[in-house]
Structure formats: structure tokens, C-alpha cells
Amino acid sequence: MNNALVQAYSDCRLCPRNCGVNRNLGELGYCKENSQLRISSADLHFGEEPPITGKGGSGTIFITGCNLGCLFCQNWDISISGKGRIISEKELTETFLRLQRAGAENINLVTPTHATPVLINGLIAARKKGLSIPALWNSSAYENAETLSMFEGSIDIWLPDLKTLDSSISDKYFNAPDYPEAAEKAVLYMLDNSELRYNSKGALLSGVVIRHLALPGHMDASRKVLQWFAKHARNRALLSLLTQYTPNHRVYSKNCPGRYISREESADLLRWVKELKIENGFFQGRNLKLI
Ligand code: SF4
């Protein structure tokens, strides 16, 4: 175990919330998790972008808790309501290896930011025992670039969801007015530290896939994200533009958009993608299309 990593829980500033709590003593920060890792599930998943799903599926581990806490989260039972069970570092290592034996193309860590030390330790231990498939960081992008530098090459594929560059939206829906600044720095770090590489069957070995979930009624904000992608990432990353925002029972009480993306909004997004000459990625609504 890398104790220097675990020490980071003692005065936790792993993410921009900078809570400063001692999670090793059981204190909870904004993410509502102490230093014990909890997961909700660990299985093959076939619904990710094609170069992530590949033929064998993505070995997806849903981690309990979240440092961002979007009000409209589709996985709110795991991220906000705390569904999950404690898993030891040894069992985590075994889980990585089990997913590899089951044919997974990668280890897909969903909402991992608040659990960085234990996940990185688990990956290092699993590599020593034969884990050879890529590790994928599937995050909200609300990260400290300094925390990402703790990874020492443990992560191969970055899958940040660049949610918005508009601080009034991030304040309203994530209680994080600093989200745009933090996410921009984090995604630039990812871009600077990885390049797109594929295996012979078209599955990703390394690189960055930037997701963006468009919010109904906030198309100007989505346009800003697309412009950012065109400027900083067009030739360095894949875009995954998501239009399947789904209002759940929580959104009505939280003042979040209470409807789906309209046809007109969806058409606008596709038009902007073309105008900005973004040619590498995916457009996901009910069906997935190549851009
Ligand atoms: S990881 Fe959790 S406890 Fe640590 S700074 Fe972020 S929200 Fe706070």
C-alpha cells in the first residue's frame, strides 16, 4: 500500500471542495464518504461509447458517493443516497482481475475522484498480479489537477464529463461555482498527458473522450462547451455529445429542467458540431450516431 496516497485522506483536499476533514478518522466531507471504499456494482457494461465497450464490454465499477452531486444525477441512489458496500483493497484488486478474466476491455472507474488513493493503490497492486487492460477514469471533471498528478501513469483512458463552462449553471445545479475553472484545468491536464491509441480491434488503449450532457433549455452553455472542444481538443480527443437528459422524480423539487431535449435543440447541437468541424466522436440520443 502506498501510504503517502492514503495520507491524503487525513486532511482531504483531493478535489476542489477542499473540505480539510480527516477521512482516515471517519470524518465525512462533501462527498459523504470516509476513507473506506464503497462500491455499488462491478460488472461488464455494454452501453459505453464503441471504442470503450469494444467486443468484451467495459469492466465498470460504480463507486459510492460523489464530490459533485448534480441535482439531476441519473445514478443518484449510488452517488447521493449512498447505495453500496465496503470493499477492501485486496478485494478491489481481485475484482479488477475478475473483470479482466471475464473479457473486459478496460477497468472503468465511475465517479472515482473522492476515492483516488485507494483506487490507485488497488490498480498498482493489480498490475503486479497481471492486470494488463487499460484503466479508465470516468469522472465529472470536478478535480484538482494536483490530485491527477498523483496517478503516476496508473490511468490510461480519461472520460471526463465536461458539464458546463458557465458558473451560474454549475452554481445552481452542482453547488460549485468554481466548476468551470477546475474542470477546464483538469481536462487540459488529461489532454496533455494522454494520446489516442487503439488496439487492432478498435478498442481504446489510451486517450481522452470528453463527454458533454446537454441540458434542456441551456443550449448556449452547450455551444460554449463545443467551442471549447473545437479549440482545445478537436484533434486530440473524441467528443461524446449526450442528449438523453432524463428528468427524474428529484428534478422537480430541485428546480432542474423538467423535460427532455427537444428536436430543435438536438438539431442545433448537431449543426454546431458541423459548423465547428468536429469530426471525431459520437452523438448519443436514443440512438448512437458517429459524428
Ligand atoms: S474528496 Fe470528499 S472530502 Fe475530499 S475534498 Fe473532495 S468532497 Fe471533500
The overall number of domains is 1
Low-confidence stretches: none
* CATH fold descriptor: TIM Barrel
**Gyration radius, in Å:** 18 Å
Structural class: alpha/beta
Q: Which small compounds were modeled alongside the protein? A: iron/sulfur cluster
The biggest sheet amounts to: 11 strands, mixed
CATH homologous superfamily, by name? Aldolase class I
Summary keywords:
11 strands; binds iron/sulfur cluster; alpha/beta; 291 residues; eleven-stranded mixed sheet; TIM Barrel; 10 helices; globular; single chain
Structure overview:
This protein is α/β, with parallel strands linked by helices and 291 residues long. It has one domain: Aldolase class I (TIM Barrel), CATH 3.20.20. The model has no long low-confidence stretch (mean pLDDT 93).
Give the arrangement of secondary structure elements:
Elements: H1 3-7, E1 38-45, H2 50-53, E2 58-63, H3 76-79, E3 85-86, H4 89-101, E4 107-110, H5 116-128, E5 135-139, H6 145-148, E6 157-160, H7 167-174, H8 179-192, E7 197-198, E8 204-213, H9 219-232, E9 238-242, H10 263-275, E10 281-284, E11 288-290
Parallel strand pairs: 2-4, 4-5, 5-6, 6-8, 8-9, 9-10
Antiparallel strand pairs: 1-2, 1-3, 7-8, 10-11
Helix pairs in contact: 4-5, 9-10
Bound molecules: iron/sulfur cluster.
The site of iron/sulfur cluster has 13 residues, from loops.
